[in-house]
Design goal:
single chain, Elongation Factor Tu (Ef-tu), domain 3, six-stranded mixed sheet, mainly beta, 12 strands, SH3 type barrels, 167 residues
Length: 167
């Protein structure tokens, strides 16, 4: 698996009980967990984990070969990954963060920066952009400022508010 084919789909938290159960958080809503998910090892390689038991209601998961507390502790507090092809298709005008990260930000036909993060903790999401002048700027992710998103070519066309570049 290459980095481009994988996306973070959730996080494995701490252990629960003594049978190797782990608490799990799944990021995409209503995502159907596949039988195999991946975690990164210390070298950054993707290691497969086969799901043995999963309870969405309880937020617990157990993996084959990790059937006791000591083994389960080895994979706690790790993000888990799935193939991007397994994610549900986003609705119209909805995007996954991985589709926007590293996209070129275009203003007046010139690249002015790259998306480094999407901050969606507030009622309005913000694009965090590292501009070509090395400054980090935040742009509200609204139609007024974000005019077009070309996911295929990783380009986002913007019309920022007056004075945005002088921030």
């Amino acid at each position: 698996m290459t980095k481009e084919e994988m996306v973070i789909a959730g996080k494995i938290h701490g252990t629960h009980g003594v049978r190797g159960d782990l608490k799990i958080e799944i990021f995409p809503p209503n995502f159907k967990l596949p039988e195999i998910i991946y975690v990164k090892d210390k070298e950054g390689n993707f290691q497969p984990l086969e799901v043995e038991a999963f309870s969405r209601k309880k937020g617990l998961i157990r993996f084959k070969g990790y059937d006791d507390l000591d083994k389960a502790k080895k994979i706690k507090h790790k993000y888990f990954y799935v193939e991007t092809s397994r994610l549900p298709k986003p609705e119209k005008d909805t995007f996954y963060e991985y589709q926007l990260i590293d996209a070129d930000v275009i203003y007046n036909d010139k690249v002015v920066g790259k998306i480094i993060k999407v901050d969606d903790r507030l009622s309005t999401a913000y694009l965090i952009i590292k501009c070509t002048d090395e400054k980090i700027r935040h742009l509200p992710f609204i139609n007024e400022f974000v005019k077009e998103i070309d996911v295929e070519n990783k380009k986002i066309y913007i019309q920022p508010p007056e004075g945005w570049f002088s921030l």
